[in-house]
Amino acid sequence: MIASDLSESSLLIIEQGMKLARQLYAAVCIIHVVDNASQYSSYAPGQPTVWNWEEVQQYAIDFLTNGTQKHLDVDKEILVRIGDPKKEIIEQAAILNMSYLVIGTHGRTGLSRLVVGSNAEYLIRHSTVPVVVIPYRRESH
Q1: What is the DSSP string of 31-46?
Q2: DSSP for 17-28?
Q3: Helix crossing, 119-126 with 85-95: angle to 10°?
């Protein structure tokens, strides 16, 4: 299972996950979880308070489908859920009996990590399957 946050850097994480899948002759499930709490963090007067979740889900599916088109040699499934990303990823990895979880890190430290939180750290601590962590800026590490 490869977790994606739909950032451009997540395509690099997917690339690394696909390499691992090829080496293991494995199929891949790419998961993105739309954080249903994010609609409240961007609330502003005059903005709708309810998102069109179907449109958000379709955007995620389109992004991941387009971003993985070159990986035709790997059997893959795209899974988009709505909820708490950390908990949904852990739950889906268990339900689908995944062998590995591939995630990326943004490399935030200090206050920015404290404010934003660390999904990667949570996943590492709570996953019931091995976690492969790909640093966001591999070339600078």
Answers
A1: EEEEETTHHHHT--TT
A2: HHHHHHHHT--E
A3: 30
For residue 78, which phi and psi values (nearest 5 degrees)?
-110, 130
Tokens (6 digits) for 14: 């997917």
- Each residue of 109-120: pLDDT tens digit? 554 444 345 788
d(CA 81, CA 61): 10
Q: Which amino acid is at 89?
A: I
Which of 119, 117, 94 is CA-nearest to residue 33? 119
> Which residues, other chains included, contact 1 with Cβ-Cβ below 8 Å and sequence gap of 6+?
28, 29, 30, 31, 89, 92, 93, 96, 98, 100, 101, 102, 129
Beta strands in the chain (DSSP E): 2-3, 28-35, 76-83, 101-105, 131-135
pTM assigned to the model: 0.81
> What domains does the chain contain, in order, with CATH numbers?
2-140 (3.40.50.620)
